[in-house]
């Protein structure tokens, strides 16, 4: 299959990599499977091609991703800001993966902006900033991991991706598509996944490591959320909010609320779901939709956030009760036909297959 990448951009990147002595790979704050998987998949493959790099992340990753090969070599900004800044200052090439605006690196944003490195964006979020020297930005592609595979294949041929890199890249495609359920209507996604599986990875084990690796308390927190906390509103909307007290009660660990926001979308007729997680300084907001309602616009409008049309997030700096009251008001005032219209795909009996 022909590549979607611009051959001149690929050639330019190849030259930049060849000339580089120091390559740093980074991804967004609170990295998910796609962010960490793409960073490590690229890292393994560059090393295999004789171009050692370093992965530098703003902060830590959840336990359910710690098994990915290479995580012990990841440098965290939060563990040593001085060392991280030095790495950024000395880098010749800086890969920015799975985010497209420096602010998504939170405490490391200034360090990225100040780095003199040649900055290469590889990402699938809409509306990239213009602060990169070379951009591989494809919002219609399932995941950054799929893009990294395409890029590596274009650079060095598809056989350059070994089994360890394949484990990382497959994990990111799997998590960003909800195990090949959404954002993967392109045959290309399955082609890339097939190539990765052909390296000998065990799909059932990857699935189990990511999704069957939680504490019993996390399952109880999900039960509590669905039974006692889920609010179903008219306007095809449902939401869940968790206080800090509840997170403590269920011994919350990083990553425990991952996936929770998707659950209300299983209700017939619900097309818009929100999760509010109280943190010490703000409320973390996660938004999901099925069908045509673009939650990234809602996140940008109300929570200074962004993301994809069906998966987005942001922050509220109002107290949790005020945040929820505003949300209910905003939803009551929604007149967006993409949410409320009868032709909203997938929802209810009018589904178009
Ligand atoms: P999650 O709800 O899983 O944290 O994030 C879902 C998607 O929304 C992610 O792919 C990410 O791109 C986007 N997102 C989450 N939080 C923020 C945010 O604070 N700002 C922006 N711009 N995007 C966010
Ligand atoms: Mn992603």
- Topology pattern, helix = H, strand = E: HEHEEHEHEEHHHHHEEHEEHEEHH
What percent of residues are in strands? 15-25%
Average pLDDT confidence is 95
Question: What is the CATH topology assignment of the largest domain?
Answer: inorganic pyrophosphatase (n-terminal core)
Global Rg? 20 Å
At the fourth level of CATH, the homologous superfamily of the largest domain is inorganic pyrophosphatase (n-terminal core)
The count of DSSP E runs of length 2 or more, i.e. the number of strands, is 12
Helix content: 25-40%
As for the number of domains, it is 2
Largest sheet: 6 strands, parallel
- Please state how the strands of the largest beta sheet are arranged side by side: 3-2-1-4-5-6
Query: What coarse outline follows from CA principal-axis ratios?
Result: globular
Number of helical elements:
13
User: Which class do the helix and strand fractions yield?
Assistant: alpha/beta
What distance separates the N and C termini?
A: 26 Å
Low-confidence residue ranges: none
List the ions, cofactors and other small molecules found in this model.
guanosine-5'-monophosphate, manganese (II) ion
Please state the second-level CATH architecture of the largest domain: Alpha-Beta Complex
* The CATH class of the largest domain: Alpha Beta
């Amino acid at each position: 299959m022909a590549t979607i990448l611009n051959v001149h951009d690929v050639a330019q990147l190849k030259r930049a990599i060849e000339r580089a002595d120091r390559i740093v790979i980074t991804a967004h704050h609170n990295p998910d499977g796609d962010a960490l998987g793409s960073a490590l998949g690229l890292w393994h493959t560059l090393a295999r091609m004789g171009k050692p790099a370093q992965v530098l992340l703003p902060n830590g990753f959840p336990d359910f991703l710690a098994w990915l090969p290479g995580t012990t070599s990841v440098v965290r900004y939060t563990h040593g800001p001085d060392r991280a800044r030095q790495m950024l200052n000395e880098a010749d090439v800086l890969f920015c993966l799975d985010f497209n605006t420096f602010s998504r690196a939170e405490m490391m944003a200034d360090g990225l902006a100040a780095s003199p490195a040649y900055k290469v964006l590889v990402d699938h979020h809409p509306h990239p900033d213009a602060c990169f020297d070379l951009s591989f930005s494809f919002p219609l592609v399932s995941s950054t991991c799929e893009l990294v595979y395409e890029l590596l294949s274009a650079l060095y041929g598809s056989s350059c991706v070994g089994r360890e890199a394949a484990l990382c890249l497959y994990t990111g495609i799997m998590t960003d598509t909800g195990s090949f359920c959404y954002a993967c209507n392109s045959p290309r996604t399955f082609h890339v996944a097939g190539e990765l599986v052909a390296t000998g990875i065990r799909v059932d084990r990857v699935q189990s490591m990511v999704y069957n690796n939680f504490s019993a308390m996390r399952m109880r927190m999900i039960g509590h959320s669905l039974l006692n906390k889920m609010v179903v509103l008219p306007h095809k909307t449902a939401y869940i909010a968790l206080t800090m007290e509840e997170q403590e009660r269920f011994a919350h660990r990083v990553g425990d609320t991952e996936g929770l926001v998707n659950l209300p979308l299983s209700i017939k007729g619900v097309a818009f779901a929100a999760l509010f997680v109280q943190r010490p300084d703000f409320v973390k907001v996660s938004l999901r939709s099925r069908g045509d309602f673009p939650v990234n616009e809602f996140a940008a409008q109300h929570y200074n956030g962004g993301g994809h049309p069906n998966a987005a997030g942001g922050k509220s700096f109002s107290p949790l009760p005020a945040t929820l009251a505003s949300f209910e008001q905003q939803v009551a005032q929604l007149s967006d036909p993409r949410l409320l219209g009868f032709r909203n795909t997938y929802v209810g009996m009018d589904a178009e297959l």
